[in-house]
Design a protein that fits this description.
Chains A, B: Glycosyltransferase required for the biosynthesis of heparan-sulfate and responsible for the alternating addition of beta-1-4-linked glucuronic acid (GlcA) and alpha-1-4-linked N-acetylglucosamine (GlcNAc) units to nascent heparan sulfate chains. The structure is a homodimer of 330-residue chains. Chain A is α/β, with parallel strands linked by helices and 330 residues long. In chain A, 33% of the residues lie in helices and 18% in strands. Chain A has a single domain, classed as Spore Coat Polysaccharide Biosynthesis Protein SpsA, Chain A, CATH 3.90.550. Chain A has an eight-stranded mixed β-sheet. In chain A, strands 8-7-9 form a three-stranded antiparallel β-sheet. A two-stranded antiparallel ribbon of chain A has the order 5-12. The interface between A and B is large, with 60 and 59 residues.
Chain lengths: 330, 330
Amino acid sequence: RCFHMCKLPGRVMGIRLLRFTSVVIIVLLLVAGALTALLPTIKDDKLPNSRREPKTQSQSALDSFTLIMQTYNRTDLLLKLLNHYQAIPHLHKVIVVWNNIGEKTPEEMWNSLGPHPVPVVFKVQTVNRMRNRLQNFPDLETKAVLMMDDDTLVSAHDLAFAFSVWQQFPEHIVGFVPRKHISTPSGVYSYGSFELQNPGFGNGDQYSMVLIGAAFFHRGYLEDFQQQPEAVYALIDETQNCDDIAMNFLVAKHTGKPSGVFVKPVDIRNLEKDTNSGYSGMWHRAEHLLQRSYCVNKLVNIYDRMPLKYSNIMISQFGFPNYANHKNKM
Amino acid sequence: RCFHMCKLPGRVMGIRLLRFTSVVIIVLLLVAGALTALLPTIKDDKLPNSRREPKTQSQSALDSFTLIMQTYNRTDLLLKLLNHYQAIPHLHKVIVVWNNIGEKTPEEMWNSLGPHPVPVVFKVQTVNRMRNRLQNFPDLETKAVLMMDDDTLVSAHDLAFAFSVWQQFPEHIVGFVPRKHISTPSGVYSYGSFELQNPGFGNGDQYSMVLIGAAFFHRGYLEDFQQQPEAVYALIDETQNCDDIAMNFLVAKHTGKPSGVFVKPVDIRNLEKDTNSGYSGMWHRAEHLLQRSYCVNKLVNIYDRMPLKYSNIMISQFGFPNYANHKNKM
């Protein structure tokens, strides 16, 4: 190569060569610079999901979740909670299921008090149904759904941690409120919490459901819910209750495992008493718990099996809030 | 059909018919009875693994575990612990790794004090090495190994629960003692527990190792351990330390996930002070922790990467020991 070039008159060749090699060197430096910038930093030991990222619309479908909150007759609580939840890390969007039939949503007021960290969509309903929140909303862009009752406040720390747990157990309902069913010798099931006898496996208690009023689950289960027997919808509509029990049946059937993973909340609050509406939740109705036992048995009839399975796994956050919360006298 | 039969003389035909139909009916009843007996009882809601079963040699390889306990110069503690551990539910066999070179094992005395719930095998070693306990013992018949230090007492309740957790996370080291490494700006790693700064992911602490001196893990990892670079064995032999750190590197490399799952123990005790031998554990040596930081960095060199990953999942048993241990002010 130099051969050919070397034939050119000495000085001209020299300048041309100089120019040529300079360009080559500059190009090589640029390429090297680009490659260096693209080199992955050694991050093997960092847990990618826990890093705090600025909230943007481009948060991937896997790294963020959609809050679905159904509301009836407690708009003051709704707005208080929206102010809290709109700023939760990894939140992508809020869907408010508006069960106040015929009443205007607070959308105008919401917009006038913008900007807001995330979009909030008000889905106006035509009938006040408990199962309205279980529609397969086209507004959903994330894999994960966070479903919250409109009177429940869970701290950002709890939600951030529970979301990271859901990411490790995406086929489960990962949430803060565990419940169980028990069998009785008659074959009739009963529904309850820890006050109910344990299912008899030795030590401690077991849970077989995690309530969806404070939990993360995969949006695929909303799709699945649309494919259930009519009798399930009729049951939920008849009782205005039990949509969460039905969801646990659905998930347990799908996975063949316990439907839920219980994350022990550090700071969860019921704001019912704070409402000015005078309306207190459905669970205050006298027949509420009896209805839920009724629902368990009806669902076993409808599905012709008891798919719920027990778990005794309780998950907490290592070193939080007390950095030595795992210590023992050794 | 009756046509043909009806042709026979009335009385004879009648008796034959009677006999025939009786036989048919009896056969049908027997078949129905057999079918009823074979019908599965509705057991969908029972968790098979938690049921207390009588200990027999025929406990399947999946439903039981082998305890491997290495011992040096603390035979009094060993025997105290053997009396405790021999009666743990789901225990299949005990392997005692006898590091008291040249000294007779207590096998004779053990046998004279039989019968025992499970077989105990004493593996006499020729050299007192920390990594003796990580051999791929042919005596192992179960998938799960429980490895315990010879000065650590963990309650049966804790072990039964942790074993059930291991069965749900069989590729992890499921145990009671979490530790972590941290990066420093110099690129040099340090080893420690919660007193060390957290790795900086926001709230709380993280762990990246679960020590094998009180943990369940899959026997496959003992096989894997035999395939490691010579430098790893040299490191462990040089320090008489760090075999557990090496195992965590191995597991993390294998899974690409955090190596361990931490189960918070309710009742774990260090019996060191109870020994008459005057011998206290290796971790009392002045250089112990510095050695372990040294090991982390050496292993990163040997493997040319840092495979350890962080987790902040802490698992406890729902409703045990306090049946309301999951309750919150709501």
